Transposable element Tc1 transposase
Amino acid sequence: MPGKRARRHFSQLSDFERGLIIGMKTAGWSTHRVAGQVDCSVCAVRNCWEQWTREGTHARKTGSGATRKTTRREDRRILRQAPVDPTVTRSTIRADAGVAIVPQTISRHLAEANFKSKRPFRALPLTPEHRQLLLQWCQARSM
């Protein structure tokens, strides 16, 4: 549709934009005019203004969900353990980092940082030629 403004989906309003919205609405501007000026949706302007009139603040609400169990410093300590020894276990990382969290949390932190788990070989993988030679050696000594 020509002339239709492209909407910025899933973008959050910055504190500056929220301040602009409140200032313009306080000055008597219409919701549509403010939305065009700030380049956001009418619904975002309306929600921001309703929050201002209801709560007296324009600050974003904190997100829902579980609170973090580790601090940033503990997160860095966990991530520092992985490159030192790629075969280290989650329990060892937890003991070395000194944090009381479940191993799944450590796995999630490592996955967020794109660290892949590496397990030590129990035995070297054999090539087909090695298998054939080993079979011949065993058959020759079976008696």
